[in-house]
Amino acid sequence: MSFAAWLGATLSFFDGSPKVSPHPLPDRNPVLLVHGISDSEWSMLWLAHYLRCEGWEVYTINLTPNWAQKGIEPLAAQIDTFAQKQFGARRFDLVGFSMGGLVSRYYVQRLGGLERVDHLVTLSAPHNGTIMANLIPNRGCREMRPGSPFLCDLAQDADKLEYVKFTSLYTPFDLIILPQRSSEMPQANNIRMPVAAHPLMVFDKRCLRTVAEALRE
């Protein structure tokens, strides 16, 4: 279990928050949280707890394999399967952290998410790649390298993202997404957050508040 997953699980354990809020506000979409590489839904539990306290119905998903050994597209297909089973015909919002942000974007652009998703919020996502992906030779990491054929192809129809409320948060102190401005997209409301490290993007109170504000738009 990664540090982010351990911290999220520990905070949620001591807080005692339920899996799904018993009293979400009826005028809001349910929210699906998508974790990053090498992680699980446990790393998103603190963000989930915060949003539930703010009145959202929140769900988390476990992407497998979580090192993206088979690529980004099969992971995005898991969002599609989860949404069809859990939400039926309901619209929903997506919040993705790190690799999960890119996976969420792929679902919106290529797998029908435009017809289902109102808000797309990403935190420190490698939308334009990260040089750290050169350290891992599997398919998903090759796809997340700057200038990869996968990212170049995905950029061809990125203007589709203008049909959703797209917000991209990132920190200038990120040592995982390099360069840090790789998270910026011309179709997004790009917000720079002074967060000390990549994993803290899903725990920092300023980020949590900003995610909630983006979902309220």
From TrEMBL:
Annotated Gene3D superfamilies: alpha/beta hydrolase
Coiled coil: none
Pfam families: Palm_thioest
Top-rank taxon, per record: Bacteria
PANTHER family for this protein: SLL1969 PROTEIN
Name this polypeptide is given: Lipase class 2
